[in-house]
Amino acid sequence: SVVIQECHVQNTAREYAKLYAAEAEPLEGFGEVPEIIPIFLIHRPANNIPYATVEEELVGEFVKYSVKDGKEVNFLRRDSEAGQKCCTFQHWVYEKTNGNLLVTDLQGVGMKLTDVGIATLAKGYKGFKGNCSFSFIEQFRALHQCNEYCEMLGLKSLRTTHQKQRKATSTKTKNLPNSSTVKKMVPKKAREPRDFISSEH
């Protein structure tokens, strides 16, 4: 059922958020960490709709910090502390799962989030069905801009790694067919990018 799926998505995301908090909270200057509120499934056998969810009511201004697609741009998420920490949370989960999973639709009041989504690169990643298209992951990779909280957690920039890898492969192929004088220089030029790539995997 959709309700059961929704419950599973939110509570899976919540587990990641707890791990994120455990890593981020001890860091000097990080401050409060976003929390995904628990969602509980209740079974009402006598009712027309046998399953329902119950969660804490969030009081205050409800903000969408991360968006479902590139068409919707929310400037609040970039400028607010909660918004930046949500984007860092997405980056952290992305790195922790080797780019296989992304928590999407981060929204809520202040640092309390609810109704989140999950996108997975492969269907059934770790036996888990996401409820968002994997194109969200590609889009996140293309649009994410690291902020100070990403730096505090030591997350790798998604842009530079991609560009450096591309550059590394192009210099290698360019130098190989050239004359012997250039060949002598190849190890020096190729060594740095190659180390860079291997250290990443």
TrEMBL record:
Residues 170-182 have a biased composition (Polar residues). This is Alpha-protein kinase 2. PROSITE patterns: ALPHA_KINASE (PS51158). It comes from Nicator chloris. Keywords: Cell membrane, Disulfide bond, Immunoglobulin domain, Kinase, Membrane, Repeat, Serine/threonine-protein kinase, Transferase. Residues 161-201 are annotated as: Disordered. Protein kinase that recognizes phosphorylation sites in which the surrounding peptides have an alpha-helical conformation. Regulates cardiac development and cardiomyocyte differentiation by negatively regulating Wnt/beta-catenin signaling. One of its GO terms (cellular component) is basolateral plasma membrane. Pfam families: Alpha_kinase.
